[in-house]
Amino acid sequence: MGSIICARRAAKTVQGSHVFEISGYSLQRERLAVSSRSAVFTVGGYDWQIHFFPGGVIDCCKDYVAAYVFLESKNKDISVRASFQLSLVDVTGSAPPRTLTTGATELNTTDKTCVGLHKFMKRSELEGSPYLRDDRLTIECVAEIALVNDVKSIAKVPPSDIAEHLGKLLREKDGTDVVLEVEGEAFPAHKIVLAMRSPVFKAELYGEMRAKDMSCITIGDMQPAVFEVLLHFIYND
Predict the structure, then answer these.
(1) What percent of the chain lies above the pLDDT cut of 90?
(2) Which domains are seen in the chain, by residue range?
(3) Based on C-alpha coordinates, what's the Rg of the chain?
(4) Which of 74, 104, 233, 235 is the most buried (most CB within 10 A)?
């Protein structure tokens, strides 16, 4: 009995969180694409960092603060699927968190290293909210990382019985489509089996020089008993 190694990709999800406290908000509120950065934190075996843009990240959205999460792992050819929940938190607990989610995104170290929200919150709204106190604010990031592993399993495969089935076809003459005639004795057979097992029959049955009517082929220079053994070999061995 043989075996086949089957490979599949199995994924599990891990979660982790990081709290990012930002001070001196007003120092950067007018500076486009300038960020405050969190400490690097690890979730799912990968390194991440939050970038918060008080002055916005692109000109068309400069009236909004923005928040992005960057993949900071430096290994080559990393690819990971991740989603992030980013929440502005009122440290006094008087207001519920303001939460937005990035959605699951495939990130890698080559051409897509970050995911985020360029309209995290309108700046005027933030500055009148309880989330900004004493020029400080707090962002909580909850990361959900899909870990994908290659899993190999071994499946037992029974030995091939194709020869048994082909031999049965020959014995019972089911579906025969050609007759091989040897010294007047007829041997019904199957063109496809003959062509598969013998290049001579393949050329005669399917080659460019084949005759129009190939329903009967005369075999010369061979005795019927010898040809019967040959035919048995073609179907069974």
Answers:
(1) 47
(2) 2-152 (2.60.210.10), 160-236 (3.30.710.10)
(3) 37
(4) 235
Distance, in Å, from the CA atom of 108 to the CA atom of 121, rounded to the nearest integer, reads 27
* CA–CA gap between residue 134 and residue 118 (Å, rounded): 24
State what percent of residues in the chain have pLDDT above 70: 90
- Under DSSP, the state recorded for 26 is G
CA distances from 46 to 123, 139, 145 (A): 31, 20, 9
- Residues contacting residue 9 through CB under 8 Å, at least 6 positions apart: 148, 149, 150, 151
The model's pLDDT over 116-172, given as tens digits with 9 standing for 90+, comes to: 999 999 999 999 999 999 999 999 999 999 876 544 555 667 777 887 888 888 888
pLDDT of 220 reads 86
pLDDT tens track for 182-222: 998 899 999 999 999 888 888 888 887 777 777 888 888 88
Q: Name the one residue in this structure whose structure tokens are 């001579």.
A: 200
Region at 148 (left for phi over 0; alpha for psi -120 to 50; beta for the rest): beta
